[in-house]
């Protein structure tokens, strides 16, 4: 799901089915208000102004609808991430902005952040108990960004981009899944300082570089 969301973001894919879009919008509102467990396909269909049969023709099961809604939110996150890092002038700034953007976007997303806070057993297991697929998808995305920086000469050629991306991804995931009692994740400056002190130095592994 997350890998498809990333692919869609990079390709700027758009949905063209108006009824499906209405159902996705309605499901987003319904899940934000009532949570996933307490919501039914009938609830979503009613909110979208369509029949239950029409809803099931677009999404065969509630699980299929949930997957599409969550996927769309992650795609929006990837879109915003790519926009945020464009504001930075250096690779270090892009790491700092990217780290802060990731934590802020996911934690403050009304659906994904809300589920992590209210129904963590619905979303969190899929992030940490899926054989590593979710983290691997994000790791590949980060590694791709770092590889482009390296090819442009903005990151040391000695950097193992795969390993650095793995570490950055796991640090981010840890903050998301287990809120910190040391770092105030609602304080953007604190979050950026963590990135400056501990993530940016990984871009230049040799002393003095």
UniProtKB/TrEMBL annotation:
Q: What is this protein called?
A: TetR family transcriptional regulator
Which branch of life, at top level?
Answer: Bacteria
Signal peptide boundaries: none
DNA-binding region, as residue ranges, is located at 40-59
Boundaries of every HTH tetR-type domain copy:
17-77
Keyword terms, alphabetized: DNA-binding
Record flagged with keyword Protein biosynthesis: no
PANTHER family linked: HTH-TYPE TRANSCRIPTIONAL REGULATOR RUTR, HTH-TYPE TRANSCRIPTIONAL REPRESSOR RV3405C
């Amino acid at each position: 799901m997350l890998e498809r969301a990333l692919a869609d973001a990079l390709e700027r894919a758009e949905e063209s089915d108006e009824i499906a879009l209405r159902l996705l919008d309605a499901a987003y509102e319904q899940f934000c208000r009532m949570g996933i467990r307490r919501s039914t396909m009938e609830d979503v269909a009613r909110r979208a102004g369509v029949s239950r049969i029409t809803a099931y023709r677009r999404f065969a099961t509630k699980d299929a609808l949930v997957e599409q809604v969550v996927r769309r939110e992650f795609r929006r996150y990837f879109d915003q991430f790519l926009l945020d890092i464009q504001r930075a002038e250096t690779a270090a700034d892009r790491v700092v902005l990217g780290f802060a953007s990731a934590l802020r976007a996911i934690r403050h997303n009304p659906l994904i952040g809300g589920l992590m806070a209210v129904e963590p057993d619905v979303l969190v297991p899929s992030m940490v108990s899926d054989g590593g697929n979710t983290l691997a998808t994000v790791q590949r995305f980060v590694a791709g960004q770092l590889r482009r920086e390296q090819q442009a000469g903005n990151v040391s050629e000695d950097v193992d981009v795969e390993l650095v991306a793995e570490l950055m991804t796991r640090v981010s995931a840890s903050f998301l899944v287990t809120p910190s009692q040391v770092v105030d994740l609602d304080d953007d400056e604190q979050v950026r300082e963590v990135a400056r002190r501990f993530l940016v130095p990984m871009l230049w592994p040799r002393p003095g570089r």
